[in-house]
Amino acid sequence: MRTQQTAQIVADRLGLPVTTEQLLIGDTPPQAVLDALQQMEPVPGEWPLLLVSHQPLVGSLVNGLCGSGSQHPMGTSSLACLSAEVWANGCAELEWLQHKA
Predict the structure, then answer these.
(1) Which of 16, 54, 74, 98 can bridge 78 by disulfide, Cβ–Cβ 3.0-4.6 Å?
(2) Do 11 and 18 touch, CB atoms closer than 8 A?
(3) Which residues are 80's β-sheet partners?
(4) pTM
(5) Half-sphere exposure at residue 10, Cβ-oriented, CA atoms within 13 angstroms
(6) What angle do CA 22, 59, 25 make, to 5 degrees?
(7) Residues 98 and 48: beta-carbon distance below 8 Å
(8) Closest to 67 measured CA to CA, from 35, 101, 95, 94
(9) Which residues contact 21 (CB under 8 A, 6 or more apart)?
(10) Which helix (H) or strand (E) covers residue 83, if one does?
């Protein structure tokens, strides 16, 4: 519920729709999310993506993609911006990380 509310706030400000993906709900293994990202083709107007989810999935994804162990802790209301040409472990660059003030 909270993640959908957060996603809706951002979507309203950007004038974009919210799509609920079951992979981002619950205890999904991070590799399942990476597999889904790798299969997606960038579509104009749909990329970049904003993924809204809970811990421990968010922290596992950020640190796994960056190959950073647990260097980048993700807390409640944390935001991370990553860029990558390939969405696989160790292949992303952390552009910025912001924690709730």
Answers:
(1) 74
(2) yes
(3) 97
(4) 0.84
(5) 13
(6) 15
(7) no
(8) 94
(9) 36
(10) strand 79-83
Return all residues near 14 (Cβ < 8 A) that are at least 6 apart.
none
| Rounded CA separation 72/63 (Å) | 6
What is the model's pLDDT at position 49?
A: 84
Looking at residue 2, what DSSP letter applies? H
Alpha helices in the chain (DSSP H): 2-14, 30-39, 57-66
Mean pLDDT by 10 residues, the chain (101 residues): 88 89 86 90 75 91 94 90 92 93 67
Residues 40, 29: Cα–Cα separation, whole Å: 18
